[in-house]
């Protein structure tokens, strides 16, 4: 009897923990000090490898643009950029008016993974583990944002860059672009959570093919296996390239992120909990999220306008 009561109590507290995780900012981490992860320590280490930036533009439309910006290294992630990524995710967690985010690379290419200069300097297992936990935390928090996220892939997404695309809800590939998990060629497997997320996106068999063969995924193959959700036309630079592609991505996203921010954020929360939690817990979270929009402004407006859905 006592054991049952204890089990029930543990279950209740784990449900409450998940519900808190989905509602509260900056709590979507996988690792903490319990796992030997000390954010300040690895942050200091990463800052020793500077270069490039991760830029955030939060627009009044509720759509943000997050740009990986280190064109001279094909937008590879320097140590300081990893730290900036985590800071930008924190900013997005506090953005209560946000509905969507587009993740892209500067100058017509997405991201070529870790900056190999930094990788060579921290190639010992201890530092590798710390970097891995840091990036898994940052990318898990990116994926768990109450925003609909799209990776806009132009040019190449290699290694960690390919992993970054899987930390978004959707992937749009520009014509001529390639996503490639090159890890096998580097004697590695993904460590930023890319394998776990890829498997959930394309299934075990396709994930095995992409990782085991280090296959180049072009837009056609991407659509075929469900890694890509759409293809955008990449015009020549002379035709205003970057702006045109970004505009196409914003138009695409507007189909899913149009409408009142509280409703779009609620949509993301119920889908996220549906995907991550056991059914009973997901149902309870759905009930809680439902309670935040029921009788809310968008709901009352729709009721008053007697809207029809023909
Ligand atoms: C494997 C997992 C790991 C992780 O998850 O942490 C990683 O991500 S490791 C990084 C995996 N990525 C690579 O190995 C990319 C290696 N680079 C290339 O294959 C090519 O540079 C390519 C295909 C990205 C671009 O080729 P292209 O001919 O168009 O240009 P360049 O090779 O001349 O590149 C221009 C310039 O960028 C530098 N560069 C590119 N990627 C990186 C990188 N990841 N780290 C550091 N620097 C990078 C390249 O060296 C050139 O610099 P330069 O000074 O002109 O030589």
Note down, in words, how this protein is organized.
With 310 residues, the chain is of the alpha/beta class. It has two domains: 1-28 and 260-310, no CATH class; 31-258, 2-enoyl-CoA Hydratase, Chain A, domain 1, CATH 3.90.226.10. The protein is built from 13 helices and nine strands. The strands form two sheets. A six-stranded mixed sheet has the order 1-2-3-4-6-9, sandwiched between helices. A three-stranded mixed sheet has the order 5-7-8. Helix 7 packs across helix 8. Mean pLDDT is 91; it is low at 10-26. The structure holds ligand LZKTLF4L. Residues 73-74, 76, 112-117, 119, 156, 158-160, 163, 182-183, 186, 188, 191-192 line the site of ligand LZKTLF4L. Keywords: Cytoplasm, Lyase. This is Ethylmalonyl-CoA decarboxylase. It is an enzyme of class 4 (lyase). It holds the Pfam family ECH_1.
Q: Examine the coordinates and then state which fold CATH places here, giving the name of the CATH topology of the largest domain.
A: 2-enoyl-CoA Hydratase, Chain A, domain 1
Q: What is the number of independent domains?
A: 2
Summarize the biggest pleated sheet.
6 strands, mixed
* Beta-strand segment tally: 9
Task: Write down the overall geometry.
Answer: globular
């Amino acid at each position: 009897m006592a054991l049952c009561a204890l089990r029930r109590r543990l279950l209740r507290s784990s449900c409450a923990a998940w519900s808190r995780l989905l509602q509260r900012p900056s709590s979507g981490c996988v690792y903490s000090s319990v796992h030997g992860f000390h954010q300040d320590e690895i942050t200091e280490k990463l800052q020793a490898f500077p270069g490039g930036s991760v830029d955030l533009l939060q627009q009044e439309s509720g759509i943000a643009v997050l740009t990986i910006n280190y064109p001279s290294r094909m937008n590879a992630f320097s140590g300081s950029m990893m730290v900036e990524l985590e800071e930008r995710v924190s900013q997005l967690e506090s953005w209560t008016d946000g509905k969507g985010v587009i993740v892209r690379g500067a100058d017509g290419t997405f991201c070529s993974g870790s900056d190999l200069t930094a990788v060579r300097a921290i190639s010992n297992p201890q530092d590798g583990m710390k970097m891995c936990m840091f990036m898994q935390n940052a990318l898990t928090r990116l994926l768990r944002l109450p925003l609909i996220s799209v990776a806009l892939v132009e040019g190449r997404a290699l290694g960690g860059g390919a992993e970054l695309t899987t930390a978004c809800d959707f992937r749009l590939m520009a014509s001529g672009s390639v996503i490639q998990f090159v890890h096998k060629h580097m004697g590695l497997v993904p460590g930023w959570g890319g394998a776990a997320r890829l498997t959930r996106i394309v299934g075990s068999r396709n994930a095995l093919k992409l990782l085991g063969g280090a296959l180049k995924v072009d837009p056609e193959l991407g659509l075929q296996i469900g890694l890509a959700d759409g293809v955008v036309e990449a015009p020549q630079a002379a035709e205003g390239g970057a702006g045109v592609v970004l505009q196409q991505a914003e138009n695409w996203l507007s189909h899913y992120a149009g409408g009142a921010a509280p409703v779009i954020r609620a949509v993301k929360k119920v889908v996220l909990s549906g995907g991550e939690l056991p059914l009973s817990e997901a149902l309870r979270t759905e009930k809680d999220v439902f309670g935040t929009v029921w009788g809310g402004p968008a709901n009352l407006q729709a009721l008053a306008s007697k809207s029809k859905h023909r």
